[in-house]
Amino acid sequence: MGRRPSAPIAPVVAPIVTPEETFKDLNWADRGIFTTVDDPVFGPVIIAQSQYKLTETPPRTKWACRPTGYDNGFIYLKYLAYGPEKLSALKGAGIV
């Protein structure tokens, strides 16, 4: 078999801008990339949304991020069947 010709490489050239300049860029504003999410832990936070747009299933964000260990109670209950009492005892013993 012969060798396939390689595709041409085109560099992308763009200025480096600050986050503030990016927020003001009309291209990103038109696409709705940046949105404010009311995070239950951190309050209102501006984050980047998905870049795709689907008619039937628009992107949604439940939270911006979680602090370390935020979901530990849920994980211990779901995978180890440790309820609040068991988890509290383990915390009291310095195990968790």
> How far is the first residue's CA from the last residue's CA?
60 Å
Counting structural domains, the number is 2
Mean pLDDT across every amino acid position: 84
Strand order of the largest sheet: 1-2
Reading the helices and strands in chain order gives HHEEHH
Number of helices: 4
How would you sum up the global shape?
Answer: elongated
Helix content: 25-40%
Main sheet characteristics: 2 strands, antiparallel
Strand content: 5-15%
Radius of gyration: 23 Å
Low-confidence stretches: none
Q: Which structural category fits the helices and strands?
A: alpha+beta
Q: Tell me how many strands there are.
A: 2
Structure write-up:
This protein is 31% helix and 12% strand. It is α+β, with helices and mostly antiparallel strands and 96 residues long. It has two domains: 16-64, no CATH class; 66-96, no CATH class. The chain has a two-stranded antiparallel sheet. The mean pLDDT is 84.
What is the secondary structure topology, with strand pairs?
Elements: H1 19-24, H2 26-31, E1 34-39, E2 43-48, H3 72-80, H4 84-92
Antiparallel strand pairs: 1-2
Give the tags.
2 domains; 4 helices; 31% helix; 96 residues; alpha+beta; 2 strands; two-stranded antiparallel sheet
